[in-house]
Structures are given as C-alpha cells and as structure tokens.
Amino acid sequence: MKQGLSLRVSQHLALTPQLQQSIRLLQLSTLEMAQEVEQMLDENPFLELATDAAEREAFGVDRLDAPISLGDQIAEQMADQTATQTTAGSASEPFGTSESEAREDEQSLDSNWEGDGSVELRPDDSEWGGDAPARTHLGDDETASATELASQPLSLAAHLHQQALGLRLTDDEAAALYFLIESLDDDGYLSEPIETLADALLAQETSALALTLTETERCNRLQQWSQTLRTALHGLQHMEPTGVGARTLAECLRLQIEELRNTPEAQAALAMCAQPLEWLARRDTRRLASLCGCSEATAKAALALIARLEPKPGRRFADVERQLVVPDVIVTPQGRGFKVQLNPDVMPRLRVQDIYANAIRGARGESAQGLQQRLQEARWFIKNIQQRFDTILRVASAIVERQRSFFQHGELAMRPLVLREIADELGLHESTISRVTSAKYMATPFGTFELKYFFGSALGTESGGNASSTAVRALIKQLVASEDPHKPLSDNQIADLLKEQGIECARRTVAKYREALKIAPANLRKTL
Length: 528
Prior knowledge:
Blueprint: H1 17-26, H2 30-43, E1 47-49, H3 70-82, H4 99-112, H5 140-151, H6 156-164, H7 171-182, H8 194-209, H9 215-236, H10 249-258, H11 264-273, H12 277-282, H13 285-292, H14 296-307, E2 329-334, E3 337-342, E4 350-352, H15 354-359, H16 366-402, H17 404-409, H18 419-426, H19 430-437, E5 441-444, E6 447-450, E7 458-460, E8 466-468, H20 469-481, H21 491-500, H22 507-516, H23 522-525
Parallel strand pairs: 2-5
Antiparallel strand pairs: 1-4, 2-3, 5-6, 7-8
C-alpha cells in the first residue's frame, strides 16, 4: 500500500463558546434569564447594570423595606422561646416585651432625644384633629413596612397560627400544633402520617437538647409525641377554614358536613363519604341510596350538598402572585394593524465598565490576558442578550402577521400554523423557532399566551380548507358552555355538531381535545 499526502478543503460548523452561550440564552425563560444575568454580574467585574438609581452603600440597608410575613414573625418568636424550654421544637404562645422592659426603652428614647430646638406652637389647634397622623416610635421605613405587611395576603399557615394564639396549650401541645401547621400542603391537607411526624419531632428534640435515649425511653417518648400530635390534630381540624388538616378527601368532606345542621341530607352525605369516592364521582344515586339506607331523592340532595363543599380548604390562601406570568412581548392595536414590542421590564440594561476596560488597555502579561478574556466575555454576553431579544421580536412579529385574524376576532379565528412556516419566513432553523417559542409569553388584547399557543395542526373541512386545532378546541369549549346541564353533550354529539359546521373531527379527537381543556365527560357534567 502506497502512502501519500493530499490536500482537501471542507467546511464544518464549530460550536464556539460564544455560539453555545447564544443558543443557551435563547431557550431560557424570563426568570431563568434574570438569574443568568445576576450570576454574570457577580462573576464578571467588567459588567454592570446601566441604571441611574443610587446604590445603597451600607450592608443590609436594602433589606429595610422588605416586609416580614406574619408566619416568619411567629416562627422567630417561638424559636426564641424554645431555647428556654425542655422540649426541642416546642412552641408556646408568642410573648411580647415585658412592662419593665417597655418602660426602660421609653425612658432611653426620651433621654436620648434632643428635639429640633423649636418651641413654637401653631396658632390653631387643627393639628389635634382627625387629619393629624398618629405619633409612634416608628420611622418612615418601619411605617411603610407595616403598611405593606397589612396589605399582603395572609397565608394559610399564618391564618392558623393566629387562631392558635387563643388556645390554652401545654408546651408539647403547642409544639405539636405548630409542627402540624407547618406540615400542611398548599391545599390544607396533612400528607404525612402521625407516626412519621412524631419521629421527626423526637429527632428535633434529641438533636436540640443533645439527649441520648435508650430504646425503651425512645419508644415511650415517641408514643407520647404520637398521642400529643393526635390531640393537636383534633384541635387543628376544628379551626377555620373547615376541613383543614384532613388526611384524605373523604375526611375533608366529612369535617365540613359535620359543621352543618343535622338534616337527613347531611346524614346521607356523611354515609356517602364513607363509601368509595368513585361512586360519588359517577353519581350512582341508586347504589348510594341502597348502601346509605335512604331514598333516591335524599341521595340526590346529599350529592348536591357535597358538590357545594370545598375539596381544597387552602385554596383561598394560595399565593396568586407567584403564579403570575410576565410577558416577553406586548401586542397592542395601532390603527388598522397591531404594534409588537418587547416588554421593557424584562430587558436587562447592561454595559461594560468603562473605568476597568480603560485601565487594562495596553497592559501586558498573563494577568492582563485573563482580564482581557473576561472583558471579551462581558461584550459577548451583552451581544448575545441583544440577539436573543431581537430574535424573539422577529418571531413574535411573524406570528402576529400570520395570526392577524386571531388578534381581530379571537381564538375561534385561529389559523393552522407550524414551526416550519415561521422558520422559512425568517431564514432560521426549526429548532431555533422551537427554542424561542418555549417559555416565552405574549400579552394580547385577549390575554397572555405562550408563543407555542399560536401553533396548531390542521384539521380538514368539507370545503377543502383547513381549520386550526386551537380553533377547534375553542369551539368545543363554546359548545360545552352552551349545553343543557341536565342533558350534556357526549363526545359523539360534539363530533356531529362539528361536522355540521364543516369540520371533520373524530370522536377520539374530540375526547383528546376535551381532556386537554380539562372538561369532564358528559356523565360527570350532568346536573342532578
């Protein structure tokens, strides 16, 4: 075999660090993007925010205006009291400052206050009227924090802790009740068994007090904690909202029914909650009436009573603000068209530190090369962020142009659209469009939607055209909303109604779209 040298010219794509960063930034959501910017600001000294706001110099000053939740106050007070008690994790009622300490503080304030040197009084007594603000020892920042604290929505745990303050409990009972309240989920349910919670309380006790228990002592103490937790759970389940602290849905419903008047319907409803919940979901009144020993009319009334109960007692205490979606693009009507613009609140204003950049200009050496590399990284980062938002704006503008009928008439006028159409129009790859439309949101006159919402497959029509799957789902939702609640539409009937409007949609497709819309089947939508 003869060996030789040959020269060949070829092209290949190399993923440089700059290109990798650009791709990664493109697929990040708004929250992830903000975290990435904060991390880069901490790591790269050449990067800074282009803001005119004055920076706070003292450590911790930026936290003065942050409101403290009531739950954190209670936890801090109980943690302070725990250090003086013999049981770990025990928490009794929060205590305030004693009268002697209050008098000492007041005397200290009076002795240190020098006043402003003014002794003049107003010629009238209007300052004593109702318009004069109450004088307190709080400063302006503390007053603002108290106002913000009062305006914040109350959490479920804080609401229960407030009720616990009025109970006469021992140290162990207060600790067990506090532990139970903190163990509830967002819906108000206690998912952990009593034995597991008792073991956790015992572990906290032995760890905090550095106790070494024998096996017998451990079993006895564990049994004591289990009994105390059951007693505390009984008190928790009688707090407001009714049904809180339940372990199962049946127990939650039972607790709410027991608070009602003792009527035949309530008695039948209690008996139904002891039956498998599948029969309640199916509304099998005949079987439930025979098992509960009541008439079918009473069974129907009991089912109507159960339907009015709250299956999630903690629902009204849910933190709605953390579920808010910040749009990346805002679409507003303008003349006969629509204006597409980026949301300025999500766009970080970054710039390179001119002082540092000029300081290393012309410097030589290994340290200077490292600083030059960090400076180049800062410039790349700013450029990639600008490119990210430019790409989002281009894709959003193309979507608005293709779905103009949606912005004029709503989701029923949505057109079929796939990623390839936008990719071909903008000269980008489908994967790029997929990254741009993931976790990016657009604020429209009809609400805020993810960019992927505007893409949908096509369904054939009798006229030979195509209908968007998004429009079909909206039409199914409209048909269900206008149905007779006593005779709800089945999937076959919905498919027939769609066919009458010229849309070819099979029953299985209707069922898939209905489940995606979280619409119950016809037998569960029927009103008794």
